[in-house]
Amino acid sequence: MISDINQDLQVKKLKKFLEGWRLALVPLNSVLLWEQHWHPCAIIATASVIYFIIWLIDMSTLATFAIIGSLINLIDFVVPIISNSICKPDSWTGQNEKIFEDICKNIVSNYNLTWEKINNFYSMRGNSPIMYYIISISMLCVLAWMASSINNVFLLYLFTTVLLLWPGIQHKGIFNTLLSMIHMAPKKAMKSE
């Protein structure tokens, strides 16, 4: 488990790293957390348009990664400039700072949780190698089967859409509601014949 002091240091580093993006992250956070009813539709529509364009262009994989990398770099360069020119620094309020700090804390805690789960999985190799190899080989076989059966761009679209919708799903408690409904479902006894 990551100590609170180490996590606070990570949050400070992330805040400094995202300083130019802070004016854009506050409204983006409200979209990702579905503060309006139309936000999930906007997320799905944006991902759909982007992947539809990628599908229409039909470039090679390497060219697609190069174009996407170039666009990400362009966005990373342009967004801080535009957000600082549109919104003056004196319009930044204490409430915005609190939201920005909460965003950074959430990013750091999710990052640490993900790495902790990955490390726990790889520690199974030493603790329980049979279970580790069963899980690894099974997941890789399923992944290979999916990749050979389903269009890779469509799989990436599904993964991206779920990844973008996940913060809102967690924030609204939809996943927990579904899990509780599954656990509360009546269990039918097996009839022996």
Instruction: Report the span from N to C terminus.
Output: 51 Å
The DSSP helix count reads 8
Structural class by secondary-structure content: mainly alpha
Helix content, binned percent? over 70%
Percentage beta strand: under 5%
Number of β-strand runs: 0
Tell me, what's the shape?
globular
Largest sheet: none
Oligomer: single chain
Chain-averaged pLDDT: 88
- Sequence of secondary-structure elements: HHHHHHHH
- What is the CA-based Rg, rounded? 21 Å
Whole-number tally of structural domains: 1
Indicate the low-confidence ranges by residue numbers.
none
Give an overview of the whole structure:
The protein has 193 residues and is mainly alpha-helical. 81% of the residues lie in helices and 0% in strands. It comes from Leptidea sinapis. Residues 23-181 form the RETREG1-3/ARL6IP-like N-terminal reticulon-homology domain. It is a multi-pass membrane protein. This is RETREG1-3/ARL6IP-like N-terminal reticulon-homology domain-containing protein.
Task: Please sum up the structure shown.
It is built from 8 helices and no strands.
List the helices and strands and how they pair.
Elements (H helix, E strand, L loop, with lengths): L3 H14 L4 H11 L6 H19 L3 H26 L7 H34 L1 H21 L2 H21 L1 H11 L9
Helix pairs in contact: 1-5, 2-5, 3-7, 5-6
Keywords: Membrane, Transmembrane, Transmembrane helix
Protein name: RETREG1-3/ARL6IP-like N-terminal reticulon-homology domain-containing protein
InterPro entries: ER_autophagy_membrane_reg (IPR052114), RETREG1-3-like_RHD (IPR057282)
